[in-house]
Amino acid sequence: MLIGDRVTLREVSWGDLAARQEWFSDPDVTRYLGWIDGVPVPYLQDDSSGSIEWTVALGDSGEPIGIAQLGKVDPLAGQASFGIVIGRKDQWRQGIGAAVTRLVLTYAFEVAGLNRVWLTVETRHELARRLYEREGFVSEGVLRQARQTQDGLQDVSVMGILRSEWEARQHRAT
Ligand SMILES: CC(C)(COP(=O)(O)OP(=O)(O)OC[C@H]1O[C@@H](n2cnc3c(N)ncnc32)[C@H](O)[C@@H]1OP(=O)(O)O)[C@@H](O)C(=O)NCCC(=O)NCCS
Fold first, then answer.
1. Dihedral angle at the C-alpha atoms of 160, 163, 164, 169, nearest 10 degrees?
2. Which residues pair with 64 in a beta bridge?
């Protein structure tokens, strides 16, 4: 379990299922997620063992509000992909996405000992790209028309943060 000031990342439980179904029925939440066979997929399809998924819960009430993931774990290169969905729209734009990103990066670099965390985000999803940039992710390139979405094929930006960059940010913050 990862505990932040306002949010907790905890193990996924069966009790989270109803909330998840609600989030993934909301077109505002799924707008920028990939679609496979007409169904939104929360983030990268995970095809490797060792991935970790958390339920994002509010720190005070424990209420589930989203999902975070480190997937596609590659132990040889010491890297994994990051995915985040805050499913409760009423919780957007309060710094929760940033808090979750920081918690996951802290886990990735300090606990799991990874060297690189990367993600993909549609280029048109500017709010998410700004969030990732603020938290230290660097744009590494654009994959053109690489994601099928409910609005058709979209360009996808690959972003990543290296351990050295994360450590430099920690150093600057102290
Ligand atoms: C993208 C997503 C994770 C962002 O989460 P969030 O909790 O809204 O993120 P934050 O609150 O940290 O930052 C978002 C904005 O709120 C602003 N903000 C943060 N705290 C704030 C506060 N207290 N008051 C006002 N605005 C605030 C941030 O500055 C940022 O705005 P800006 O970039 O326009 O300047 C969330 O919208 C989401 O899960 N969407 C659906 C799924 C999705 O698209 N996932 C990402 C796929 S790549």
1. 80
2. 57
Ligand 1 mean position to 84 CA, how many Å?
11
Structure tokens at 132: 């990732």
CATH number at residue 8: 3.40.630.30
Q: How far apart are CA 172 and CA 174, in angstroms?
A: 6
Pocket of ligand 1 (CB under 6 A): 29, 32, 84-86, 92-98, 121, 125, 127-128, 130-131
Full domain range(s) for residue 44: 2-173
Which pair of structure tokens corresponds to residue 27? 């077109």
- The pTM of the full predicted model, rounded to 2 decimals, is 0.94
One-letter identity of residue 169: R
What is the rounded CA–CA span in Å between residue 39 and residue 33? 10
Domain count of the fold of the chain: 1
pLDDT tens, position by position, for the chain (174 residues)? 888 889 999 999 999 999 999 999 999 999 998 776 666 666 555 555 678 999 999 998 899 999 999 999 999 999 999 999 999 999 999 999 999 999 999 999 999 999 999 999 999 999 999 999 999 999 999 999 998 887 889 999 999 999 999 999 999 988
CA 85 vs. chain centroid, Å, equals 6
How far, CA to CA in Å, does 43 sit from each of 18, 99, 110, 113?
Answer: 19, 18, 23, 22
